[in-house]
Amino acid sequence: KMPKNVTIIEVGPRDGLQNLKTFVPTEAKVEFIKELKKAGITEMELTSFVSPKWVPQMSDAAVIIDSCHDFKARDFVLVPNQKGMDRLKSTSCKNAAVFVGVSNTFNKKNINKSTEESMTELEPLIRELKEQGYFVRACISTSFYCPYEGKVAMEDVVSLCNRFVDFGVDELSVADTVGEANPKESYDLFTLLKEELEDVMITAHFHNTRGMALANIFAALQAGIDRFDTSAGGLGGCPFAPGASGNVATEDVVYMLEHMGIGTGVNLKLVVKALENLLPHLDKQYESQYYKLVQGS
Ligand code: HMG
Ligand code: MG
């Protein structure tokens, strides 16, 4: 079942940076994104159109899109509501990422609505985006565990995913928001999703809080998943998911896959260069084995 090639969806500029306390200068973000594109990244979450009061780090979203978006790439922008959609429509970017938590408590903390209220709000927005030719990805948070409610049932994840498919989304990014899943849970959920949602593009999104993300990716590969959200430098975490740490590092995933003979199209040296240039602007170090190895630290 193992794929020959895997698509890496870089989420560093969005998930990676959103949680950093110190504002990263817009020019440094732009440079980071451009260098990641040079490294061979063809799909990337550039930024998000959310409330600047809730997530100040993303307040420069419009400038980021104007400076970085090119039509050859699949550049995503996160949008939570009508206002986010309106802001997206004022740009040239045609790829939207909506996001909802399977668990109600997380969803309330993250976007101030219950899961059901979010679905009601998103349905007409997604249908409209689809009519207008947008690519829509749905990010499904707390697909394994919720930081407030604990274990999440697989049936609830499948049913939420099915509703998004019915709304017309092109892709589901199924997330372990707090990095609590283990490889057996990863294999079981992705096997079930592949069975239930034939012909739907499914992506796995792992945070590495407990050091299990690479093992979870290996398990997901065996379940037939060939798309992974990763973040350069292992930065990341949702500000409204206490206990979550960074996403699995792009370099570590690319290193593992390439050494298994699975192609990614990503040039590791150029990812490291992008990270070196970004580092002086950050208030933290990278959480990536590969980066530490090549820096000799
Ligand atoms: P709210 O306070 O309920 O919103 O927040 P509201 O509709 O009452 O509006 C309040 C104010 O926000 C108003 O401004 C609106 O105009 C403004 P004011 O009148 O006070 O000046 N506003 C907006 N401004 C800009 N863009 C918008 C927007 N919407 C309203 N789109 C809201 C609701 C959704 C806005 C808020 O909760 C929010 O921004 N949340 C941010 C959530 C977030 O970014 N989380 C991180 C991303 S998700 C994630 O990381 C998980 C993921 O990685 C997968 C995984 O790992 O699980 C994807
Ligand atoms: Mg995330």
From TrEMBL:
Keywords: Lyase, Metal-binding. The keyword Metal-binding applies. Its EC number is 4.1.3.4. InterPro entries: Aldolase_TIM, HMGL, PYR_CT. It holds the Pfam family HMGL-like. GO terms for molecular function: hydroxymethylglutaryl-CoA lyase activity. It is an enzyme of class 4 (lyase). Residues 6-272 form the Pyruvate carboxyltransferase domain. The keyword Membrane does not apply. Gene3D superfamilies: Aldolase class I. Belongs to the HMG-CoA lyase family. This is Hydroxymethylglutaryl-CoA lyase YngG.
